[in-house]
Each structure stands twice: as structure tokens, then as C-alpha cells.
């Protein structure tokens, strides 16, 4: 699934430049610095797909990676970075809104949440958007290696409780670490199940 040889990448910063729909699409969203680039690289086994150590909040575009025709992976711009202007936040919101409303082949959005911090208010706003657009989403906790064993279950329980009344939330939460590789196989299996549907 993730072993395609040549990838084709497209970036869109406005609705008109979204690539045509093709196969299934999965998208990754999360606050700046949540570990999204690292996770996408771990998931795909490519180090060049999503560049890490980028300037937070700089890329206000959707990045589309065609993984061999059957699956497109969409890297959504990180949110919640304080230094971004209100105008940029508004442009981001408008683009994301338009994308979520019109993307019939979008099978699921994986919403990345830092396992140390849990769901923050601006994550909640994104989940509100997804619920309103009736786009299926699943929570992926990142940086699981940074938590003590005793803290992990508490974080999972609190996150589950926060999702209970959210209609578009997939109940299963995936705990991952790009450092240790924990949960990466589970995330791959989740994607594979979507494609089999
Ligand atoms: P992005 O801004 O969401 O794309 O996040 P990055 O992937 O660039 O990672 C942001 C920071 O978190 C970097 O300093 C990474 O080294 C760190 N990081 C990423 N993944 C992990 C992880 O699994 N565990 C830990 N402890 N740190 C991580």
C-alpha cells in the first residue's frame, strides 16, 4: 500500500487548485509541532514526503501525495500557531471548509493529538468542523513515548470521553510514536481497512 515507487505531489492553497479526485483520500490534520511530518514519514516509510523542521505555520496549503493511484495522502496545514495573522487563519479556515465540504473521496481525516497535551480548544474547533461536514475522523495520539505507562490509559480514557458525543468520530484511538514505531502498524491497518470498504 505504501510501497509505491514514484509519488506525485500537488499543493493547493486555494479551492481552484485542488487536484481532481482520484481513488481514496486520507488526510492528516493537527496543531503545528504535533509530530505530523514525522508520523507521515513513519507511515509511508519515506523521509522526503513531509518535510520536518519546517517553520511552524508557514505552509498554508494542502499537500497531496499520490501513493500509486489508489490512495492519496493529504497533509493539511498545521493549526494553532500563535504567530499566524488573523487573515491567514481566516484563509486557512475557508480553504479547509471548502475542501471538507466537497471531497467525496475523502475516506477519513486522521486528527493528530499530542499524547502529552490531549485535545485542546483549537483541536475541538477542528473536530466541530469535521462533525458539521460529516467527515469521518479518527484520533491519533502522537509522541506516545513521552508518556509514562500510567499516564497512557488516563489519556486514552479522557480522549474517548471527549469523543463520546461527537457524531463523526471513529471511536478507536490509535496511540503512536514516530520515535519507537509504536502504533504505526495499527495506523497502516486502519488505512488498509478503509480502502477495503
Ligand atoms: P509537525 O510540525 O506536526 O509536522 O511536527 P514534526 O514532525 O516536525 O515534529 C515536531 C517536533 O516533535 C520535533 O521536534 C520532533 O522531533 C518531535 N517529535 C515528532 N514525533 C515524535 C515522537 O514520536 N516522539 C517524540 N518524543 N517527539 C516527536
UniProtKB/TrEMBL annotation:
Keyword line: Cell cycle, Cell division, GTP-binding, Magnesium, Metal-binding, Nucleotide-binding, Septation
Cofactor(s) the protein needs: Mg(2+)
Domain of life where this protein originates: Bacteria
Gene3D superfamilies: P-loop containing nucleotide triphosphate hydrolases
Ranges for domain EngB-type G: 22-197
SUPFAM superfamilies for this protein: P-loop containing nucleoside triphosphate hydrolases (SSF52540)
Pfam families per UniProt: MMR_HSR1
GO cellular component: cytosol
GO biological process, one term: division septum assembly
GO molecular function, one term: GTP binding
CDD domains per UniProt: YihA_EngB
HAMAP family: GTPase_EngB
Its biological purpose: Necessary for normal cell division and for the maintenance of normal septation.
Family: Belongs to the TRAFAC class TrmE-Era-EngA-EngB-Septin-like GTPase superfamily. EngB GTPase family.
Name by which UniProt lists this protein: Probable GTP-binding protein EngB
Biological classification of the source: Bacteria, Pseudomonadati, Pseudomonadota, Alphaproteobacteria, Hyphomicrobiales
Amino acid at each position: 500500500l505504501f510501497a509505491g515507487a514514484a509519488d506525485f505531489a500537488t499543493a493547493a492553497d486555494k479551492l481552484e487548485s485542488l487536484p481532481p479526485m482520484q481513488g481514496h483520500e486520507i488526510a492528516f490534520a493537527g496543531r503545528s509541532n504535533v509530530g505530523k511530518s514525522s508520523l507521515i514519514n513513519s507511515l509511508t516509510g519515506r523521509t522526503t514526503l513531509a518535510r520536518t523542521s519546517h517553520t511552524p505555520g508557514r505552509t498554508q496549503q494542502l499537500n497531496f501525495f499520490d501513493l500509486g493511484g489508489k490512495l492519496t495522502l493529504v497533509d493539511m496545514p498545521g493549526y494553532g500557531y500563535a504567530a499566524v495573522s488573523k487573515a491567514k487563519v481566516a484563509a486557512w479556515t475557508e480553504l479547509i471548509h471548502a475542501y471538507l465540504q466537497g471531497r467525496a473521496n475523502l475516506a477519513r481525516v486522521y486528527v493528530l493529538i499530542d499524547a502529552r497535551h490531549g485535545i485542546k480548544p483549537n483541536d475541538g474547533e477542528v473536530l466541530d468542523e469535521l462533525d458539521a461536514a460529516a467527515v469521518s475522523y479518527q484520533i491519533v495520539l502522537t509522541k506516545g513515548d513521552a508518556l509514562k505507562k500510567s499516564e497512557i490509559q488516563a489519556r486514552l480514557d479522557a480522549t474517548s470521553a471527549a469523543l463520546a458525543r461527537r457524531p463523526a468520530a471513529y471511536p478507536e484511538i490509535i496511540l503512536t510514536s514516530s520515535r519507537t514505531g509504536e502504533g504505526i502498524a495499527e495506523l497502516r491497518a486502519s488505512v488498509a481497512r478503509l480502502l477495503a470498504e
